[in-house]
Specification:
Layout: H1 22-25, H2 28-32, E1 42-43, E2 46-47, E3 51-56, H3 60-65, H4 79-88, E4 92-96, H5 106-126, E5 131-135, H6 142-155, E6 160-164, E7 166-167, E8 170-171, H7 178-187, E9 190-194, H8 211-214, H9 216-230, H10 233-236, E10 241-244, H11 256-264, H12 278-282, E11 286-288, H13 294-304, E12 309-310, H14 323-328, H15 335-350
Parallel strand pairs: 3-4, 4-5, 5-6, 6-9, 9-10, 10-11, 11-12
Antiparallel strand pairs: 1-2, 7-8
Length: 355
């Protein structure tokens, strides 16, 4: 059962999320209150449209429907968000909501998602030059989720789908979710996978260091992607466009072991016949750039390709306020590399017009 703590600290699904209240949705006035001149990002004389593929919000009225009272330590409303975006040089954010509704019954989940997606569409309509959004779906009810996904994309104009790294203990590779992946493949929309924590390891992640977040969140992404690979989901739905949060967790950084297990212990990879080596699937996924150091970013690029990485901030969770400079100042990149990661790749996947 979800507790209040899940929505306050680093452990829960909404670590670092933000209320999007009326002040943000209705508001040239809110934007006008921010006197900060927007930082314009230029690469070799070209003005680059920067797109943050990893930024969060929640809506208090939707939380209320689930009986949850979200009280974040950092409440960002209205002009503050625009101010932060302008200071950092973020032109647009792709808004996602980390799931807190996966335990809801069908009727409750239907009502929650309906209001939530309408609020997302309202936010985008109010500020189309600053936001696009990922539709939310009730993964625990696949037939309903398929309807919600199609409605969100085709009727509300949302640009992709956000999902958790697991669904009440079920892996995303579970056959239960195949209808959802089939619909996402048919629609050609981007899927943003964000961890919701590894509750199964709660006892081992206690103690200093915030390990439930520091280790737990990237570990869940690693598990989710690994199951999608080894269970053949990415072969079955080879057209899926998946973006994994936090640089894909640990998987891209120790990827050769994923190949080695099938060579060293072939019996452990025998239940599903894969069409290619596990590491090759990494090159058909996408990742955000939240990996903290230039060397880590270069390692990620070497493993998956620069065209597979998009800028992310995890806003408003304060992991970084320098995502633009993280890309600009990483040595050894071409201008094309930088512009791709700063916004060009995201623009293509999310259907955003370039400058």
């Amino acid at each position: 059962m979800t507790t209040r703590r899940d929505f306050i600290g680093g452990a829960g699904a909404f670590a670092g999320a933000v209320f999007c209240g009326c002040g943000l949705i209705h508001a040239p006035d809110a934007h006008a209150q921010a006197p900060v001149k927007r930082r314009e990002v230029v690469v070799s004389g070209r003005r680059v449209k920067t797109i943050d593929v990893h930024a969060h919000c929640v809506f208090p009225e939707v939380m209320d429907m689930m009986g949850l009272k979200f009280r974040p330590p950092q409440l960002v409303v209205g002009a503050d968000r625009f101010k932060a975006m302008d200071e950092q040089g973020i032109d647009m954010e792709a808004i996602s909501i980390n799931p807190f509704w996966y335990s809801a019954d069908r009727d409750k989940a239907e009502a929650v998602i309906k209001l939530q997606n309408e609020k997302l569409a309202e936010l985008v309509a109010a500020h189309p030059d600053r936001f696009v959004a990922f539709t939310t779906v009730a993964m625990q009810h696949p037939e309903l989720a398929v309807q919600q996904l199609e409605h969100g994309i085709k009727k509300l104009g949302l640009r992709g789908m956000s999902v958790g790294g697991s669904v009440e203990g079920l892996e995303l590779a579970d056959p239960k979710f195949h209808p959802i992946w089939a619909k996402a493949e048919e629609l050609g929309c981007l899927i943003f996978i964000h961890p919701v924590g590894t509750k199964e390891l709660a006892s081992r992640l206690k103690g200093n260091g915030g390990l439930e977040n520091t280790i737990g969140n990237p570990l869940e992404t690693t598990l989710a992607l690994s199951h999608l690979i080894y269970e053949g989901t990415l072969d079955r739905f080879h057209g899926l466009k998946i973006c994994a949060a936090h640089g894909g967790g640990y998987l891209p950084f120790y990827a050769p072991r994923s190949d080695a297990i099938c060579v060293t212990f072939p019996d452990r990879c025998s239940s599903v016949t894969l069409k290619k080596k596990p590491t090759e699937y990494l090159k058909q996924l996408y990742y955000d750039s939240i990996v903290f150091t230039p060397q880590a970013l270069k390692t990620l690029i070497a493993e998956v390709g620069v065209d597979r990485i998009m800028m992310g901030t995890d806003y408003p969770f304060p992991w970084t306020s320098t995502s633009v400079d993280h890309i600009l100042k990483t040595p050894g990149l071409s201008d094309e590399d930088r512009t791709a990661m700063l916004g060009d790749t995201a623009a293509k996947l999310l259907g955003i017009k370039s400058n």
